[in-house]
Amino acid sequence: MSAAIKRKGRLSARLEEFKAKSGADKRRAIVDLLFNNAMYIIIVIAIIYIAIQVPAFLSTSSIVNIISLTAAKLPIALGIGGAIVLTGTDISAGRCVGLTACISAALLQMTNYANKIFPELEVMPLWIVLLIVIAVGAAVGLVNGFFVAKFKLHPFIVTLSTQLIVYGLILMFLMIGSNNGQTLSGLDESYTNFVKGTLFRIDGVAVPKYVLYAIILTALMWLVWNKTKFGKNMFAVGSNEEAANVSGVNVFWTIVIVFVIAGAMYGITGFIEGARIASCSANTGLNYESDAIAACVIGGVSFVGGTGKISGIVIGVFLLQIIFVGLNFLSVDQNLLYVIKGMIILVACAIDMRKYLARK
Amino acid sequence: MKKLLATILAIAFVFGLTACGGNSDGEISVFYYNFGDTYISSVRSAMDKIFEDAGLNYNNYDGNGNQTTQTEQVTTALAKGSRLLIVNVVDTGSNDAAQNIVNLAKEKDVPVIFFNRSVDESVVSSYDKCVFVGTDYEMAGHMQGEMIGKYLVENYDKVDLNGDGKISYVMFKGQEGNAEAIARTQYGVEDANKVLTEAGKPELVFYDAQNSNKYLVDQSGNWSSSAATDYMNTILSQYSEANKNMVELVIANNDDMALGAISALQGAGYNNGTGKTIPVFGVDVTDAAQTMIKEGKMVGSIKQDANGMASAITTICQNFLDGKETFDGIEEDNIVGTWRVNIPYSVYTGE
């Protein structure tokens, strides 16, 4: 009750503050408000427009589909977000997802599947495989983080190198035994059920389990970013490394851990992706990082460093999926997808910098 | 000091690598357009085996989907003293890339065997020591279309889920601007329609009447299963049996995309081997697709014979090296003029 009154009080105070302003100031305040929430406004306009054109866009099954697609692309973006907060980036992410997806698929093929890559291998317990791929992802992250932190190399260069190394490893991995670079498929039911199985049904539409995993990961990352000392250190290092160092933050380990967490996220993404698409080849994961990075910057995780919110990343991923699904529903020429995506990234970054410059 | 160390390391590394090659004869250089391609990988491993068994010194190069990279690899290999080039050219959009490679090889009098990705007759004929081993790439689309048509005529009422007398389909295209993808996308439907019309059935209908392209393409151009999964999930969120507009047929340019679509269908309760199955067709007959077809989760695919291609290439390669007639030992039916060998496709439906 008292909270409601307080909120009302704050709102009316703001309103009065607004009324007290002169004409020019009023206009500026409104423009600022519009700009600062531009992404939300774009999403709402897009949804309304698409829904008017194709009402089925807001049907239960369509909404579930958009949420599932968002969930599938979320973990990798959550990982990359940390690297961007540190003014860096991580372009090894996609290949890392590819490698971990191939490993997951290889270890979890059906025992009686004719083209098993490891014919002698029984189906392994899921949690062991999950731990293995998280470890593999984290190991790549460790390499990334170590070289960035120790040698002060730009993350672009470091992750470019690991991207290539990991791709090489994928190609070698797929050549093991008699596999000859073939697509890995024939996954054990325990695995596909764990990822794609039905969590619950809304209106008879099945919501896949990986939606739940994405929610858990988002909550986990929110806690890490907002409620831990490490999270605070990460933002401190991102906004000013030297200042953070002087004030006693261990810059080296902060950077390393950011990349290790990112790597672990790619491992989990790979584990989910392997079962979701059910056939893993050397192409799996290719360029996934570009969408993830785009989602982060759309969501306000700035390359300036030190700013960004988990909610922003979720919004960014969500917006990209709205565009993908929306253009499909509208039967728009798909080449336009590139144009629209590019424009949105540009606008989002421009708005972002506008905020940053204003603060300065 | 650092520079010195780096130089020494680099030199040691290069020597280490060449030491593995260890054959005084010039190498046979094999250029693949992309190591990541599933079908090309099976050609590669078949060819590797033949070369190894014959004790020939060969070296594989990965163009990684980039013509510049590949052309640089070719010049390097020629400078190194390669005695034969086997090229899976990256750029099929124009003749320039292939012609350039031919010219480079001609200068050094080194034979060139192009394979798999199509090269124009004019390019191949411009050099007497040049041949092309490929497939009549349009055939895959024709055969896929015919297979689909036949299947539909036999199972029409079963496939026509909403009983409106028409079959609605979706087509997954692997890549824009690729001759094979274009042909498969076109003939996969056209030839199926031909068979249907002959049997007195109506033509196929694209599931989304407003889509004038009549296909969905992998935006990244990778013929990837993930693109097909995402599309299929999105389709299934709007089209279903309950809405009486379910997509009744899935045609994909390759097996990876077919498998991706099946993954999405399985999420919606179809194609699990028992119960309802939406017929899915692909091309390549990868090991994974073969299993799917055997388990009844997919209907059919068109086989590109990787082993046949590898053995034709290596036979011609050996002929060049031994100074024999170019097409010695190649099945006569498959030879086209003096410039090309076609490896036939075959239909695979698990029988």
Describe this structure in words.
The complex is a heterodimer of chains A (360) and B (351). With 360 residues, chain A is mainly α. Chain A has a single domain (60-359), classed as ABC transporter involved in vitamin B12 uptake, BtuC. Chain A is 73% helix and 2% strand. Chain A is built from 15 helices and 2 strands. In chain A, strands 1-2 form a two-stranded antiparallel ribbon. In chain A, a hairpin with a 2-residue loop joins β1 (198-202) and β2 (205-208). In chain A, α6 (126-151) packs antiparallel against α7 (155-174). Chain B is an alpha/beta fold. Chain B folds into 2 domains: 24-135 and 306-344, Response regulator (Rossmann fold, 3-Layer(aba) Sandwich); 138-303, Rossmann fold, CATH 3.40.50.2300. In chain B, the strands form 2 sheets. In chain B, strands 2-1-3-4-5-13-12 form a 7-stranded mixed β-sheet, with helices on both faces. In chain B, α2 (38-54) links the parallel β1 and β2 (58-62). The longest helix of chain B has 23 residues, at 137-159. Classes of the chains: A mainly alpha (360), B alpha/beta (351). The interface between A and B is large, with 50 and 52 residues.
